[in-house]
Specification:
The protein has 242 residues and is an alpha+beta fold. It is built from 4 helices and 10 strands; from the N terminus they run βααββββαβαββββ.
């Protein structure tokens, strides 16, 4: 497992002094980026070969949110490649090695020349060592959008939403979606299914539906076609500390 150590900073803590889900997601993104860079298969390599890894789905399960100042270890590894699809686990652990969160992710390798899927070369794959996938309850990749919701807002894509691929970063989608959760909602699991890419000046329509154990928030185009569907499961608990 590739790992790096960190400490929860004031600048990444929420109003209660805890790392929020979006901060956890950012740590996970950094971990996979660091691993690829250290293996010589990072941004410079993929750019030179006209390739890009695009996230297709997230599942993050949270046991406990770390507090401000807490020391943590973030880990990641790929556990399977199928055609143009890569499957990767992530985790965050406390100083005692206890899991704070686990995650599963699905990635697609695309050509930057035509946007079509590309099967990775042996040169690309040989840098990565596959490991046994984490022990967690794996949820389906597909997220159904119930018809019981409604559009509550519109958000225009700005420069701060974009990543190095010049489309909306997957974490930014989740950040935007979280704005439509109740203030006291504690997220215990997040799933995101990414359907298509949004670019500068695109308008995201926020569609919100109440679920039995949480909320489904889809960010769609004007025709109701989702860019991403995000499912948040948890509880409304104003007294909760983590």
């Amino acid at each position: 497992m590739y790992t790096f150590d960190s400490r929860i900073r004031f600048s990444e803590s929420d109003s209660r002094g805890y790392l929020p889900l979006t901060g956890l997601l950012n740590y996970f993104q950094d971990a996979s980026t660091f691993q690829s860079e250290d293996l010589g298969r990072g941004l410079a390599y993929t750019k030179a070969h006209n390739l890009v890894w695009v996230l297709s789905a997230w599942q993050i399960v949270v046991e406990r949110y770390p507090k401000l100042g807490e020391k943590v270890t973030i880990g990641t590894f790929p556990y399977d490649f199928k055609a143009f699809i890569g499957l990767r686990n992530f985790c965050m652990m406390d100083e005692n090695g206890e899991y704070l969160a686990k995650a599963n992710s699905v990635w697609s390798l695309l050509s930057t020349e035509n946007g079509k899927p590309v099967q990775p070369s042996e040169e690309l794959l040989s840098a990565y060592e596959l490991e046994e996938k984490l022990d967690m309850e794996y949820a389906p990749r597909k997220i159904p959008v119930p018809g019981s919701g409604r559009v509550v807002d519109m958000v225009m894509v700005k420069k701060q939403h974009l990543d190095t691929n010049h489309h909306v970063n997957n974490g930014q989608y989740v950040t935007i979606a979280m704005e439509y959760l109740p203030e006291n909602f504690v997220i215990r699991q997040m799933r995101a299914e990414y359907k298509k890419q949004a670019f500068l000046d695109d308008v995201l329509h926020a569609y919100v539906a109440k679920l039995e154990e949480g909320y489904l928030i889809a960010l769609t185009d004007a025709g109701g076609v989702p860019y991403v569907s995000v499912e948040f499961l948890g509880k409304e608990a104003p007294e909760a500390d983590d």
